[in-house]
Amino acid sequence: MVIGISSQSVDSHKKFAGKYNLPFTLLADTNNKVRKLFGVQTNENGNIPGRVTFVIDKKGEIIFTFNSRTQPTRHVEEALRILSRKAA
What we know:
Layout: E1 3-6, H1 10-20, E2 25-28, H2 33-37, E3 52-56, E4 62-67, H3 72-87
Parallel strand pairs: 1-2
Antiparallel strand pairs: 3-4
Protein backbone atom coordinates (compact mmCIF):
# COMPACT_ATOMS: atom_id res chain seq x y z
CA MET A 1 0.00 0.00 0.00
CA VAL A 2 1.28 3.46 -0.87
CA ILE A 3 0.20 6.60 0.97
CA GLY A 4 1.50 10.02 -0.01
CA ILE A 5 1.48 12.65 2.72
CA SER A 6 2.09 16.38 2.47
CA SER A 7 0.97 19.52 4.21
CA GLN A 8 -1.00 20.76 1.21
CA SER A 9 -4.80 20.99 1.25
CA VAL A 10 -7.27 18.24 0.40
CA ASP A 11 -8.30 20.22 -2.69
CA SER A 12 -4.67 20.48 -3.81
CA HIS A 13 -4.26 16.73 -3.36
CA LYS A 14 -7.38 16.00 -5.41
CA LYS A 15 -6.12 18.17 -8.27
CA PHE A 16 -2.62 16.66 -8.12
CA ALA A 17 -3.93 13.07 -8.02
CA GLY A 18 -6.29 13.79 -10.90
CA LYS A 19 -3.62 15.47 -13.01
CA TYR A 20 -1.19 12.56 -12.62
CA ASN A 21 -3.81 9.80 -12.34
CA LEU A 22 -2.28 8.56 -9.10
CA PRO A 23 -3.34 5.07 -8.03
CA PHE A 24 -2.70 5.64 -4.33
CA THR A 25 -4.05 7.60 -1.38
CA LEU A 26 -2.89 11.12 -0.59
CA LEU A 27 -3.20 12.42 2.97
CA ALA A 28 -3.44 16.14 3.68
CA ASP A 29 -1.36 16.72 6.82
CA THR A 30 -2.21 20.42 7.01
CA ASN A 31 -1.25 20.69 10.70
CA ASN A 32 2.01 18.77 10.16
CA LYS A 33 1.08 16.24 12.86
CA VAL A 34 2.20 13.20 10.86
CA ARG A 35 5.39 14.98 9.77
CA LYS A 36 6.22 15.68 13.42
CA LEU A 37 5.41 12.11 14.49
CA PHE A 38 7.88 10.77 11.93
CA GLY A 39 10.49 13.46 12.65
CA VAL A 40 10.52 14.91 9.13
CA GLN A 41 12.42 18.18 9.26
CA THR A 42 12.14 21.35 7.21
CA ASN A 43 15.17 23.15 5.78
CA GLU A 44 17.37 25.46 7.86
CA ASN A 45 14.96 28.38 7.40
CA GLY A 46 11.96 26.23 8.30
CA ASN A 47 10.09 27.06 5.11
CA ILE A 48 10.75 24.06 2.84
CA PRO A 49 9.38 20.74 4.09
CA GLY A 50 11.51 17.64 3.94
CA ARG A 51 10.90 14.85 1.47
CA VAL A 52 11.20 11.48 3.16
CA THR A 53 10.06 8.03 2.07
CA PHE A 54 9.40 5.39 4.69
CA VAL A 55 8.92 1.70 3.96
CA ILE A 56 6.95 0.14 6.80
CA ASP A 57 6.49 -3.61 7.11
CA LYS A 58 3.30 -5.46 8.00
CA LYS A 59 4.26 -5.34 11.69
CA GLY A 60 4.33 -1.53 11.54
CA GLU A 61 8.11 -1.30 11.80
CA ILE A 62 10.05 1.17 9.67
CA ILE A 63 12.46 -0.95 7.63
CA PHE A 64 13.81 1.77 5.34
CA THR A 65 14.03 5.55 5.22
CA PHE A 66 15.14 7.64 2.27
CA ASN A 67 15.57 11.38 2.84
CA SER A 68 16.12 13.75 -0.07
CA ARG A 69 14.71 17.08 -1.25
CA THR A 70 16.88 17.20 -4.34
CA GLN A 71 16.33 13.72 -5.82
CA PRO A 72 12.57 13.11 -5.72
CA THR A 73 12.57 10.35 -8.34
CA ARG A 74 15.08 8.31 -6.33
CA HIS A 75 12.46 7.79 -3.61
CA VAL A 76 10.52 5.38 -5.81
CA GLU A 77 13.67 3.62 -7.03
CA GLU A 78 15.03 3.13 -3.52
CA ALA A 79 11.70 1.99 -2.05
CA LEU A 80 11.23 -0.54 -4.86
CA ARG A 81 14.78 -1.80 -4.37
CA ILE A 82 14.11 -2.45 -0.68
CA LEU A 83 10.75 -4.06 -1.36
CA SER A 84 12.18 -6.36 -4.04
CA ARG A 85 14.94 -7.44 -1.66
CA LYS A 86 12.39 -8.04 1.10
CA ALA A 87 10.24 -10.20 -1.22
CA ALA A 88 13.20 -12.32 -2.34
